[in-house]
Amino acid sequence: MSEVSVTKDVAPAADALVVLSKVNKHFGALHVLQDIDLTIARGEVVVVIGPSGSGKSTLCRTINRLETTDSGSITIDGKPLPQEGRELARLRADVGMVFQSFNLFAHKTVLENVVLGQVKVRRKDRKEAEATARALLDRVGVGAQADKYPAQLSGGQQQRVAIARALAMDPKVMLFDEPTSALDPEMINEVLEVMQQLARDGMTMVVVTHEMGFARSAANRVVFMADGRIVEEAQPDQFFNNPRSDRAKDFLSKILHH
Ligand SMILES: Nc1ncnc2c1ncn2[C@@H]1O[C@H](COP(=O)(O)OP(=O)(O)O)[C@@H](O)[C@H]1O
Ligand SMILES: [Mg+2]
């Protein structure tokens, strides 16, 4: 069975939200993304896994143009990603991103962190933006922290604020790049639960993670990367129980049996 046909079964092209087509990217001599073809359907949750250095973060960063590409195309909801300018700012706002390090504005309150982009990028009025921010902070379980500064919160709380901040832009797709990797173990679940709920609510999500429990329960599809390529993709059960490539078998044996 070809890998392409697996993709099409899971993500019908008619409902494609994010489409990467023959995307290539180099860092100097390093060919970090090699002919990446990836279609993400509206409402789909794609978990990206693979060894360190395989290009997972770069893949995420190209989807919202934090990195440029050398060739190929990326479209979000049918629109090609522009190179720069106001149009790029608007399209980028359609792509929410949550990083390993929470990246909150340290000198602004939690509430202000979630208000800011709505006012500056989405041009919402402040009252409305504050109401949205409070509702989102409640939704991720940190409503009581709204007037504190990020440093007064635990890592798990800060990461949930970062999720609320991304959601406040009303994104079409959310990218998560190892959102729990910097957290103490007891805080991982509170973040994963917020992500699980988002997935259940129908958000389109691309999640780079080593949390295989999350991948099994929340993903519609697992994409396995190695050396800048998508080596294998499948539904989680199929991928974890019956990986096809030697690279995936080797990777899984290392992370599941250590
Ligand atoms: N800005 C950069 N400049 C040069 N090399 C980079 C840069 N960012 C990442 N790389 C290299 O690209 C490769 C893929 O990195 P990355 O996408 O971060 O992988 P992953 O997230 O899967 O660990 C690695 O070899 C990394 O060292
Ligand atoms: Mg990474």
TrEMBL record:
Q: Supply the EC number(s).
A: 7.4.2.1
Q: A single Gene Ontology molecular function, please?
A: ATPase-coupled polar amino acid-transporter activity
Q: Which domain of life is it from?
A: Bacteria
Q: Which InterPro entries match?
A: AAA+_ATPase (IPR003593), ABC_ATPase_HisP-typ (IPR030679), ABC_transporter-like_ATP-bd (IPR003439), ABC_transporter-like_CS (IPR017871), MetN_ABC_transporter-like (IPR050086), P-loop_NTPase (IPR027417)
GO CC terms, sorted: plasma membrane
Location of this chain's protein in the cell: Cell membrane
Question: Any keyword Membrane?
Answer: yes
Membrane disposition = Peripheral membrane protein
- Catalyses which reaction(s): a polar amino acid(out) + ATP + H2O = a polar amino acid(in) + ADP + phosphate + H(+)
Per the similarity annotation, which family is this? Belongs to the ABC transporter superfamily.
Its name, as the record gives it, is ABC-type polar-amino-acid transporter
Species for this entry: Streptomyces cinnamoneus (Streptoverticillium cinnamoneum)
